[in-house]
Amino acid sequence: MGADDDFTIIWTKQTQPPVGMQNSCTALPQQQQRAKKTARRKGCQDVPLIDTTAKLALRSKKTERLRHRQQKESKEVKSEIKCFLDLPFELLTEVFSFFLPSEIFALRRLNQFIRRFIDDNEHAIASRIIQRRYWVLVQCFPLPIPLSAVPLASQHALMSEPWQDLLKIHRNGYQHIQLINPRVVCMCMTCVLAWNNLNPLPTIPCGRMPRWNTKLLEMHASIVRAAMKSHLCYARILQTHLHSITRTIVWNSEWQRSKRVETPLHKTSSSSSSSPAAALKPRLYHLSDNDVAGETDEFLERYGPPSYQPIYMRDNYYTEEAFVPNRKWDKEGKSWKYYSKWPTPHQNDLVWLTARFAPPTV
Questions:
Q1: Which of 85, 128, 144, 259 is deepest in the core (most CB within 10 A)?
Q2: Cis peptide before 146 (omega within 30 of 0)
């Protein structure tokens, strides 16, 4: 074998290379692997991690029942309201505004809690009822003013002898209305007319004052005095008057129909004019059965006869049918025009009385 000839060393299991020589042979590939791992690790740290975990879809009868129960509980409205008195005040007054005044009085007798609530919020409840049902009548039938609410200077003018002499025609001319106590109720002309309009008028023989009439007048006067303090009593009076109007109109219409049927009409050439229905006049204010059932005074806004003359006895109600004072019909606007809003007329009367009848020392 020459010096320039190549040769290959073959190692066997019996003759392995030393450890130092083996490490030197594999050191370079291991360093390259570590460098690649370090670069790969740095690259992974630069990329933001995204959480892609999700709930496993559980499908079983138990999970389905649980899901249905949770949906049902979520739909249920959880509230601490145990009775209707726990409702908000605005909602309660709105509910009570649909009642009749007589139904409110009956509801007060249910229990002490409802009675206390109605008594504490009587003015608000009655105002909503009047606004909804008796908007016309409340403008036609104002309440008289208590004397305690009148200024002191005007009180002296009202109690003066000259003014009391002028009121004799209104104090002594009515047998069916209790006299006003001048120390309790204002005696201006507006309040006197308001007192007379609110008191019912029973029919009794002229020149007599039976015992039952005296008790009846005292009861009527006590109701009006209660209405001066309680707005709910005032609404109850308006309800009674509205019922009297509708009942009188319906009764008069039925009476005319029965009278037409009993009395044969003259035969004419026209067959339509010979029928009793064609000869009948419509009800006053075109009152319908729905208006009667609704128990509101909206029908009084339609055209009808004005009430200029005061009613001094019960028999006048049958000819008047509907007594609705303190307003007049506007022909141009085709609507009712009401007098000045209360208490403007009362205040104007006090100014006029104080200027003319007040003592000079006051």
A1: 144
A2: no
